[in-house]
Amino acid sequence: MKKKGLLFIISGPAGSGKGTIVKRVRELAEFDFSVSATTRSPRPGELEGVHYFFVGKQEFEEKIAAGEMLEYAEYVGNYYGTPKKPVEKALSAGKNMILDIDVQGALQVKEKLPEAIMVFVLPPDFATLMRRIRGRGTESPEIIDKRMQKARVELECFDQYDYIVTNRDNDVENAAQDVLAILKAETLKTFRNRDIKEHFFS
Amino acid sequence: MKKKGLLFIISGPAGSGKGTIVKRVRELAEFDFSVSATTRSPRPGELEGVHYFFVGKQEFEEKIAAGEMLEYAEYVGNYYGTPKKPVEKALSAGKNMILDIDVQGALQVKEKLPEAIMVFVLPPDFATLMRRIRGRGTESPEIIDKRMQKARVELECFDQYDYIVTNRDNDVENAAQDVLAILKAETLKTFRNRDIKEHFFS
């Protein structure tokens, strides 16, 4: 039997550099990534099954009801989410996967796939977080308030994650190496290697 | 408050290369090591507190009774064991420690210090294990039998360990890097970093 792949979930508030870290991790180690489903219309150049799975609202809601979405959220009148089947299929084939999703989505995934390895990325410091939240200084106070609140809620949730990676001094390489160390250590965990014993004496 | 150090316990049967791996890990990362206590007499050149703490039989037994030994065993009429106080002192001072002990001792430590991180080192393959067990071909069948039985018992216990490192192709460097990845990942575990949240908004 093929050994199951590992599912990594990476979350982090604005300014954490999470996206750049995930990009670097994917350069250094083989990870499949999942294609999200959405009910919004494709933009020019967006391809079905590459950028998104484009589905109708009714279909999306049927998938939710059937438990076929690992996580989903509604945003400006459209659904966005992660279909469960492609993730399970990749994991069963022994592929590692990485999902870059917000805290709300991450906790939904953890509930459905408790074996998921949850990594929370922290911004270098509070100033960086605030800089990112304030943006280019053109945002309204309401938007800044909303972002600030989201960051606070996300930070409050971090102890539901297994690991905390701090993007110290904005050193993406260092943070990526942290994630790779977690990957290696998780691969070495005994419960993922029980088969070794049976093979050893045979 | 100083962050507590990590306690690593490394075990592995004959031929696992555990001793060499631990030596290499100590070259690459800072680990305190513990000095064992014994009731046997010092050999020429052995220094008190460096090679061993040399104690009388009665004193050793009193330490056992008082719960001051993390683990101990009797071997050819003498006690050998790991005193608890120096380990706890080093950990409280934020130092990481590594204990290279057999399975029997390791399980005693885990019971007293459940936060210990248990790493089991596997020999490259069964042939290597057997070669080491047979030694130079001069051992009696009884000794070979006894070693074989010990190796089997140790292998049976491996799922009480947190991580399995396989010394594949006798590649000590690779195995040492595995241990370092475990160290890094354990350091990043959320429960060891709860203080970050409080500091982040202050």
Structural overview:
The structure is a homodimer of 202-residue chains. Chain A is of the alpha/beta class and 202 residues long. The first copy, chain A, has two domains: 1-31 and 96-202, Rossmann fold (3-Layer(aba) Sandwich); 34-95, Guanylate Kinase phosphate binding domain (2-Layer Sandwich). The first copy, chain A, is 43% helix and 19% strand. The first copy, chain A, is built from eight helices and nine strands. Chain A has helices at residues 18-28, 57-65, 84-92, 103-112, 126-134, 141-156, 172-187, 195-200; strands spanning 7-11, 32-33, 37-38, 53-54, 69-75, 78-83, 97-100, 117-122, 163-166. Chain A is globular and about 70 Å long. At the A-B interface, helix 6, strand 9, helix 7 and helix 8 of A face strand 9, helix 7 and helix 8 of B.
What is the oligomeric state here?
A: homodimer
Element order of chain A: H for helix, E for strand:
EHEEEHEEHEHEHHEHH
Read across the widest sheet of chain A, the strand sequence of neighbours is: 2-7-1-8-9
Taking all residues together, what is the mean pLDDT of chain A?
91
What is the compact description of this entry?
Two copies of one chain form a homodimer. The first copy, chain A, has helices spanning 18-28, 57-65, 84-92, 103-112, 126-134, 141-156, 172-187, 195-200; strands spanning 7-11, 32-33, 37-38, 53-54, 69-75, 78-83, 97-100, 117-122, 163-166. The first copy, chain A, is an alpha/beta fold and 202 residues long.
